Amino acid sequence: MVLLLTLAPISIFAAARNHALSQLAGYRVVPVHYGPPNKMIMSFRINGHSANLLVDTGASQLILDAAAAESFGINPSQRNLVEESAEGIHPGRYSRFTQINGEDLPVGIAQSLTAGSMNFGSSPVALRSSKESGAGNGRVDGVLGLDILLRHKAVINCQTRLVFFKVDRARQMHLSAVASSAKFTRVPLSREENGALTVPCSIHGQSARLLVDTGAFVTTFHESFLKSLGIASEPTRISARLPGGATRPIHAARINDLTVGNFKMPPDKIGVTTLPNFVRQQGGAIVGGILGMDMLYICHAIIDLDSMSLFLK
After folding, report:
1. Inter-residue contact 58 to 198 (CB < 8 Å)
2. Which of 54, 81, 123, 291 has the CB geometry, 3.0–4.6 Å to 210, for a possible disulfide?
3. Whole-model pTM?
4. Integer CA distances (angstroms), 114 to 37, 221, 311, in order
5. Which candidate, 284, 288, 129, places its Cα nearest to that of 204?
6. Between the CA of residue 76 and those of 66, 67, 93, 95, 295, what are the distances in Å?
7. Could you tell me the residue ranges of all domains in the chain?
């Protein structure tokens, strides 16, 4: 998870549903629901157990809360190896690990992973101790990351609360033409060297890139970037909690001329903080901020990981 924002819930208002693009040939559709604060949650069955996963384009792979994973029968993978010591040669054991944002996490295997009518089969799972799990409608047991979303060429419709997974790879979809006829603006998505998804943006004529992150609940910019543009911010009572447990204060600033690609974003207040280096440094690209779920929803965002496009309206 690139950034988990612990915020007073920001209301996602019930707007008239956009029924265009509600069915895509060659795809299976899985509905999502929103839980506070701005969590896009998909219901899963993991090894036969019910689970809620945050749909997170800012996560590189599938991650489960370690305690929830254990209740699903998932434990760190163990592999046999041969160790040589003074007493001779004997079998040993070690756990498989993966590194996410500089943190080594053990890996287990989910033997069965399904959502709605979509069967993802078995999948490796990174295990992380988390405070995000809990009871209620907003409970999450982990995150659905880019490994599965990209593998199945997902199309994420933030406004209609539908996620499509491609099942017929021979079927060609012309989503750009359909989206254009529905008055959407296409913004090209780039996948950086480390796998992150970014889009071009501009403020006060200054170009930058934004991380497209459905797991970030609020759009947030790097403090020094806005200061360099002469944009002042004011303190708030909210804070950002980063992987590893560190927290950072969040300020607020009003931006009236933010464009993403050729799309003019509505004037609004956005979050401001000092983003960590693993967020800002995306391979060769420097990221000025994070495009989060609040603005993605307001602008009817459709994230198409087949054509690598972000559609905004």
Report:
1. no
2. 291
3. 0.86
4. 25, 35, 27
5. 288
6. 9, 12, 12, 6, 37
7. 4-78+94-312
pLDDT tens for the chain, residues 1 to 313:
334 443 333 333 333 344 446 778 899 999 999 998 889 999 999 999 999 999 999 999 999 999 999 999 999 876 544 444 444 444 444 458 887 777 789 999 999 999 999 999 999 999 998 755 544 455 899 999 999 999 999 999 999 999 999 999 888 877 888 888 899 999 999 999 888 999 999 999 999 999 999 999 899 999 999 999 999 999 998 887 766 567 889 999 999 999 999 999 999 999 999 998 888 887 777 899 999 999 999 999 999 999 999 999 9
Q: Which helix (H) or strand (E) holds 203?
A: strand 197-203
Supply the CATH classification number for the domain 4-78+94-312. 2.40.70.10
Q: Are 154 and 165 in contact (CB under 8 A)?
A: yes
In 176-190, which positions are buried (b, 16+ CB within 10 angstroms) versus exposed (e)? eeebeeeebbbbebe
Token couple for 202: 């501009």
Q: Which of helix, strand or coil describes residue 150?
A: helix
β-bridge mates for residue 202, sequence order: 207, 259
Q: How many residues does the chain have?
A: 313
Closest alpha carbon to 146 in 57, 272, 251, 242: 57
